[in-house]
Design a protein that fits this description.
The chain has 104 residues and is α+β, with helices and mostly antiparallel strands. The chain has a three-stranded mixed beta sheet, with helices on one face. Strand 1 and strand 2 form a beta hairpin. The longest helix has 13 residues. The protein starts with a helix and ends with a helix. The model has no long low-confidence stretch (mean pLDDT 94).
Length: 104
């Protein structure tokens, strides 16, 4: 089922509250969120990556994603899929994130 544009914006808006503890920028602007889906039962699947494979804060970020999305009434359950393809790089960051981190 395709997520409505409005619902997608709500989900991404909630995910902007999840801050990468190392970089201090949210996971959406960092370009870590690849895809969000919401099925008819209210299960939200977030396909995302981390800045590095050995990221010790992965479980913390996953917990924060769960917490942020549980605040949306349409979402009953959250599945976070951590993927390593495509490999994250700084070009995936928003202009805002690059400016905040001083990356050109």
């Amino acid at each position: 089922m395709a997520v409505s544009e409005e619902m997608q914006e709500s989900i991404l808006g909630a995910l902007e509250n999840v801050i990468d503890p190392e970089l201090g920028i949210d996971i959406v602007n960092l370009g870590l969120v690849y895809k969000v889906d919401l099925d008819e039962e209210g299960t939200c699947t977030v396909t995302m990556t981390l800045t590095s494979m050995g990221c010790p804060l992965g479980p913390v970020i996953v917990d924060q994603v769960n917490t942020a999305l549980s605040e949306l009434p349409e979402i009953k359950k959250v599945d976070v899929n951590i993927v390593w393809q495509p490999v994250w790089n700084k070009d995936m960051m928003s202009r805002y994130a690059k400016m905040a981190l001083g990356i050109r």
